[in-house]
Design brief:
By secondary structure, chain A is an all-alpha fold. Helices cover 78% and strands 0% of the residues of chain A. Chain A is globular and about 65 Å long. Chain B folds into 2 domains: 1-74, no CATH class; 84-135, no CATH class. The two termini of chain B are 27 Å apart. Classes of the chains: A mainly alpha (254), B mainly alpha (135).
């Protein structure tokens, strides 16, 4: 009996994921209501549970994809993978108030540039402070501070070693997780309440995963605006880090 | 036109076209990555919706075919959180941790600064739009 149940679950990974994530959402809503009296958003709790499960999956399997590396939860990998994620994000465009988005276009664009340059400078400076004084190492770690995809793309382009790449990916992943967890906490401080504010946030906080999860946990209605700018973040980083920014670091530090 | 699958198909078409254009754009400017593919797809969908509203051909079923996926957004994000490489992040060491924490706190401060510059009138307008979507 148990074998048959396991087989059905394994053969219907995505469907099982729908059921499993549904249970997590239900639990989170209950916890939000009973433990925090609605003060902490149900989705914020669900995302924390997700991160916790990812940690468990990583320890259990030694893999890099969290819970999705556990065989029975492979469907979670598909459900939360880039394809479904992007599909769901694109669909939120139907909620976009075009006038509001256009009004914040310029400031969103400015935010994107600051959101690439500032993390890069901070990442590279901290790398320097810890003894990574050559241009390649500083650039790779700085790029990782932009997003965890910009890091390895940049590293590969300028010929960084694999442990440097791992370090830069780790930097980007920690940043993304921090954004996921602390966005709802700091929402008031950041004045995250309007479409314009969400677009500034999307441009500056970087990484689609961090921004969209952070906004989801704060106010679902803000998501499409943040996504609109955040999706340009990785592209801009991959454009600037291995080129202009690398050359700048090289010119200054040799 | 007014069926669920046509709505979903339109969404899919925008998704694919946007990602394709993002790849082409990335290739053209030498970024070795997709540049804003999802954003381009979203802009296309915004324009298509505006056009259909103007023509009066935006049906309820069509909208449902798109909005279902919008409603699935948060569960998908939870599934995404469940496959982050949390173990590697926690084992990243001092450099990674410090770089990440200083970066995100600095960015949050800049965001706060930039958002405090938003005019009162703009905030009122923006909040009205958001409140409208919540109900």
């Amino acid at each position: 009996m148990l074998e048959m149940l396991k087989a059905v679950t394994l053969h219907n990974g995505l469907v099982f994921a729908f059921a499993f994530i549904g249970v997590i959402m239900l639990m989170s809503q209950q916890l939000s209501r009973t433990l925090t009296f609605g003060r902490v958003h149900g989705s914020a709790i669900a995302i924390l549970i997700g991160l916790g499960l990812a940690y468990w999956g990583g320890i259990e399997t030694g893999g890099s994809k969290g819970l999705a590396d556990v065989k029975i939860f492979a469907g979670v990998g598909l459900m939360g993978g880039a394809m479904f994620r992007d599909f769901a994000i694109v669909s939120t465009a139907f909620e976009v108030h075009a006038e509001e988005a256009a009004r914040a276009g310029v400031v969103g664009f400015v935010a994107l540039f600051i959101g690439t340059i500032v993390p890069f400078i901070i990442g590279a400076s901290i790398a320097y402070a810890f003894g990574y004084t050559d241009a390649i190492a500083m650039t790779t770690i700085g790029a990782g501070a932009v997003t965890y995809i910009v890091g390895p793309v940049t590293g590969a382009a300028i010929g960084a070693s694999s442990d440097l790449m791992a370090l830069s990916i780790a930097t980007g992943v920690i940043k993304a997780i921090c954004v996921m967890v602390f966005t709802p906490v700091a929402a008031k401080f950041m004045r995250l309440q309007t479409p314009r504010a969400a677009m500034v946030f999307g441009g500056l906080a970087g990484t689609v995963s961090g921004v969209t999860a952070g906004l989801a946990a704060t106010d679902r209605a803000l998501v499409p605006y943040g996504a609109l700018t955040a999706t340009f973040h990785t592209g801009l980083g991959c454009l600037m880090c291995p080129s202009v920014l690398y050359l700048a670091v090289k010119a200054i530090f040799g | 036109m007014n069926t669920i699958i046509i709505g979903t198909a339109m969404l899919a078409l925008c998704h694919l076209t946007g990602l394709f254009l993002g790849d082409v754009l990335g290739w053209a400017i030498g970024a070795r990555a997709n540049v804003g593919g999802v954003g381009i797809a979203m802009l296309m969908l915004v324009l298509i919706r505006l056009y259909m509203v103007k023509k009066g051909i935006l049906g309820k079923k069509f909208e449902e075919g798109v909005n279902y996926w919008g409603a699935m957004y948060i569960p998908v994000v939870v599934a995404m959180a469940a496959q982050q490489n949390v173990v590697a992040a926690l084992r990243g060491g001092h450099v990674a941790l410090l770089a990440a924490v200083v970066t995100f706190t600095s960015c949050f401060c800049i965001i706060s600064f930039m958002n405090r510059m938003e005019s009162k009138e703009s905030i009122e307008k923006g909040m009205a739009v958001i409140k409208d979507k919540e109900h």
